[in-house]
Amino acid sequence: MAKHAVVRTDLLSGTTDGSQLNSVIFYKDSNPAAIDNAQLVVLDEQLGRETYKAVAPKAESTRKDLRLTAGVEMFYDQSRTHYLTEWENEAGKPVRVYALPTHGGFSATVEAFDKKPEKGKFVGFTAESTKITVQEAADDKTFGKVTSIESSGYGEGRYKYYYITLV
Fold it and tell me: How many distinct helices (H) and strands (E) make up the chain?
């Protein structure tokens, strides 16, 4: 079974400012598709009063176009055990996305990235991919920097999070 990314919205402005949030249905190849948390999308056409179509970033996308998928952060049903394999947003179902302003930050597990991130590396996006791209140097596709790594969760170090400070 594949592992799915876990996200913490830590200091994203959407945690207190609803104007920084959107509801989207993710599309890949013109069809609704499942998507992990901590993935990068851009808004496309409006589907309803509060819901948008979201797609992978395009070549012409800019940093300000980016949204971060962050569906359910924690399972509150204590009557059953939940595993990292369950953290995927279903195809055709709305998922919450956060704007990525130039301040604040968020944390994600390694599954969110195109390769293993390291403290001090920059992060950005590439066209046609929803994964966070680990970069050696900042460029016009950069939106943050890995500034810390921590383990937390139920049990000793169940999840290893990479904290992204937005720049």
Answer: 0, 14
pLDDT for the residue 110: 95
Two tokens at 97? 């996305």
CA distance 80 to 96: 24
Let me know: does 82 contact 75? Beta carbons within 8 Å: yes
> Between these two residues, 146 and 86, which has the higher pLDDT value?
146
Dist CA 108 CA 34 (whole Å): 18
Give the E-state strand segments of 19-167 in sequence order.
Answer: 21-28, 31-32, 35-36, 40-46, 51-55, 66-69, 88-89, 95-99, 105-108, 122-124, 133-135, 142-152, 159-166
Distance from C-alpha of 125 to C-alpha of 160, rounded to nearest angstrom: 21
Query: Which among 1, 15, 2 is positioned nearest to 107, based on CA atoms?
Result: 15
How far the first Cα of the chain sits from its last, in Å, is 35
The answer to whether residues 37 and 87 touch, using CB atoms and an 8 Å cutoff, is yes
Strand, helix or coil at 26? strand
